[in-house]
Amino acid sequence: MASASAHAPHAHAIPPQVRHVTRRVILFAMVLPTTMRAVRLVATGAPVEMQQLPVPTPGPHDVLVRVTAAGICHSDAHYRSGRNGSKSLPLTLGHEVAGVVVALGADVRNRQLGDRVVLHYNVTCGTCDWCTQGNEQFCAECRMLGSHRDGGWAEFIVVPARNAVSLPAAVADAPGATLMCASATSYHALRKARLVAGERVAIFGAGGLGQSAVQLARTMGAAQVIAIDLDRDRLARAAAHGADVVDASHGDPVAAVRAATGGRGVDVALELVGLVETTRQALRVLGPMGRAVAVGLTAGITPVETYREILGLEAELIGCNDHLRSELEPLVELARTGALDAVGAVTRTIPLDAARINEALDALDRFGPGVRTVIVPT
Question: Alpha-carbon torsion 75, 78, 80, 82, what sign?
């Protein structure tokens, strides 16, 4: 009697696409756990909580990523407080995510198991006019990780394969994660500002976004970069990256910026804090034809002296909404070459622990010290 193996088809007799899908299914079933830990927002105004959830299953165009690092952003503190964010709770927070691809959807061809990746946090349809024109943040189906769908404060996350961006070996996981918001948003803001070489830049807020903005502005050829903050350590970090610094806890920062520019003001001002006061200051430091870019999430209404601050100077106040998928590869390349020091933006790492994460969010609510806290789940 012939053995069963004699009747089994040889590998070369199985169509390549079937072999590929079979291998994926076996890997998913044999290697991955069925449940995972996730830190979730259960109710606004309440601490985030640890929960046990099923490991998500990737759809045909998705990848499953084992999270190796996930940043804690000031936006997350806004979500927890209810000042901004999704009403669909409970929700796993976290939109700055790095990890390793551990499972592939059946139709994924541009990713491999084991790929180190960082994740674009806006999940969109990919086919509407906004998406095909490269302005996917306006897609009617846009859902942000950690705000409208489960994010990366977990052991695993599923995203469309097009949202995964290769992370080179030269960039570690924790700084790589921060590229996806802190650096990417600053990069988009400077591009929105139409910064050109030789111009002067003021950056209000020297936290995670601000440290990246200082370096990116220098990389883009700014003749002078001025960082404004209340925290001496943040200002020292900005100075190390080539910025002139203004300690806003001593005197009028607007007068200090104007003095630092010989009275002419700046060409570009980024508001990265999210306060009415700093938004007003960003407008008041502009010179003729200056551009102020509003990035921080501001709860209040900002008054504007229309003629003195806008019309008379032909100045502009520009909104900055997230960033673009197309900006991420160039940004990662700047980190790979060392033109952008993402490592310096990470001031501490913590485990995937609800109590530790709540402490970090509390510090952000107080505008406490440090630049970026990153969760390392394993």
Answer: negative
